[in-house]
Prior knowledge:
Radius of gyration of chain A: 18 Å
Shape of chain B: elongated
Number of strands of chain A: 2
Helix content of chain A: over 70%
Number of strands of chain B: 0
Largest interface: A-B, 57 and 58 residues
Low-confidence stretches of chain A: none
Oligomer: heterodimer
Radius of gyration of chain B: 20 Å
Order of helices and strands of chain B: HHHH
Distance between the termini of chain B: 45 Å
Strand content of chain B: under 5%
Mean pLDDT of chain A: 85
Distance between the termini of chain A: 20 Å
Largest sheet of chain A: 2 strands, antiparallel
Mean pLDDT of chain B: 84
Order of helices and strands of chain A: HHHHHHEEHHHHH
Shape of chain A: globular
Amino acid sequence: MAAPPHLLFFLLVLTASIAAGLIGSLVGLGGGVFVVPLLTLVFGLPLHEAIGASIISVIATSSGAAAAYLRDHITNMRVGMFLEIATTLGAITGAFLTAIAPTGLLFLIFGLVLAVSAAPLIMRFGEELPQGVKNDRWAERLSLASSYRDERLGRTIPYQVTHVPLGVVMMYVAGTISGLLGIGSGTFKVLAMDTAMRLPVKVSTTTSNFMIGVTAAASAGIYFERGDINPVVAAPVALGVLAGATIGARTLTRLSNRSIRKLFVPILIFIALSMLIRGASILMGS
Amino acid sequence: MADDTTATVIDKDRRLRQAELAISHVLRGGVVLSAAIILLGVVWFYLQMAITGHATLTYPHTVLEVAQELTQGDPLALVALGLLILLLTPILRVAISIIIFALERDWLYTVITLIVLLILLVSLLLGRGGA
C-alpha cells in the first residue's frame, strides 16, 4: 500500500518526526516508540510500513546521538559491545516473528511493552548512583567496570557491574522486541542495565543509545528486503528524527536523571493506552 | 582494574578514547552522508512530481535493484540508497571496533565484536533469502 505522496504529507511527517526524535533522545529511546504510534494512529499508515520507517529512524537516532555522547565519555563500550551479541540475535528473531503475527496482536504487544516498561521507572525514581554494587564473576572476566565524568555533579563516578547473565537474557528479549515492533527498545535495554546490572542510569541511557543502532541494523536489513521500508515514508521520518535527536543529544547532559524520567513516564502511559485500544479494536473487529 | 598499575590504566584510557573518537567520526560521517542523499532524493522526487504531474511509487528492495533503478533515474532509488547507507553505518561501526580492539591486543573484545559483526552479516543474508 502506497502512502499519499504529497509534499504536505512529507512536511507533516517531518515535523512530527522532529518532535519524536527530540523526545526519544531525551529519554534514552530510539524514537521508534513515538514514530510507530504517530504513523499508524495519527497518519493512518499500515503497521508494517510504520515499523519499517521506524527501524530506520531508530538507527538515525542511535548513530546521531551516539556520535555526540561518545565525546562525553559516558558510554560503556565494553558493556555495549558484549550485550550486542544478545540484542542482535534477538532482533533477527523479532524480525521473523513480526511477519507472522496478526496486526491487532502487534498493536497489543506494543501497548503492553510500553505499559510494562513504565512501571519500574515509576517505582525506582532517582537511583542515579547505585550504591554497594560489586562486580560479579562475568563482569570481572569481561572487564565491564568503568567510570564516567558527571558534569552536573562535577566529579568522576566509578562503578561496578553485577548480574551479567540476567542482563544478557533481558537483552535478548529487548532485541526481540526491537525486531518485532521496529522500536529501539531502549526502555528494555536501560532496564536490563539499570535494574539487573545496576549501572548508573546515565551510563545505561547512553550505552543503550549506542547499542540500539546495531540492534536495529540486524532487523532493518530483513525489513528492507521484505519491502517494508517505503522511501516516501522512511525519508521524512529518518530526516525528522535525526534532526530532533541531534538537538536532544546536545541537551541531555544538562538535564538531571530525575527530570529525564519524569518527562518519560506520562508520555509513555498515554501512548501505551492508545496502542492497546487500537489493538483491541482491530482484534474485536476482525 | 584494581590490580592494574596506574600507568597501564591511563594508557588504556587514552587508547579507548581514541577508539571512541574514531567511531564517533564514522557514525557522524555516515549519518550526514545518508541524510544528504535522502534529502537530495526527496527534493528530486517532489520536483519531478511537480514538473511531470505524476510519480512512480515502486521502490527497490535489494542493493542490486537500488543500483539498477538509480541508473534509470528513479528518485526513490536515491532515497533508498541514503537509507541503505544509514543502515550500514552501525555495521561499519562494529567493523571498525574490531580493528581497534585488535590493535589494542584486546583479543577477548576482538572476538566478541567479531561475533556481533558475523551476526549482522548473517541477518543481511537472511533478508536476501526472502524472509
